[in-house]
Amino acid sequence: MIDFPMRHRVPYDGGFQIADFDPDPPKSSGSDARLEAELEKSVERLDELQRRLFAEERHALLAVFQAMDAAGKDSTIRKVFSGVNPAGLRVHAFGRPSELELRHDFLQRVTARLPERGKIGIFNRSHYEEVLVVRVHEEALAAQNLPAPVGKDFWEDRFESIRDFERHLARNGTVIVKFWLNVSRTAQKKRLLERIEDPEKNWKFRLGDLDDRARWNDYHAAYQAMLRATSRSYAPWYAIPADDKDYMRAAVARILVETLEHIGPAYPKLGAAQRRELEAGRKRLLAE
Ligand code: AMP
Ligand code: MG
Question: Which of 81, 99, 104, 140 is least surrounded by CB atoms within 10 angstroms?
Answer without folding.
Answer: 99
